[in-house]
Amino acid sequence: MKIQLLSLIVSLLFLSSTVIAQENTLPFLIGTYTQGQFRGEGIYLSEFDPANGSMKPAELVHQCAAPAFVIKHPKKSNLVYSVGETWVTGEGPIYAFTFDPQTKSLSKLNDILVPGTGPTHLCVHSGDAGNSLIVACYGGGSTVSIRLGQDGHLGKVASVIQHSGSGPNQDRQKAPHPHGAYVAPGTAQILIPDLGIDKVMLYDVDPATSKLTPSRQEFLIMPPGSGPRHLEFDPTNANRFYVVNELDSTVSAVRKNAGGDWEISQTLSTLPQEILADSEKLAGLNNTTAEIAVHPSGNFVYASNRGHNSIAVFAVDKGTGRLALVQTESVQGRTPRHFAVVPGGRFLLVANQDTDTIVTFQIDLETGKMIPLNQSLEVGSPVCVMF
Question: Which CATH number belongs to the domain containing residue 103 in this structure?
Answer without folding.
Answer: 2.130.10.10
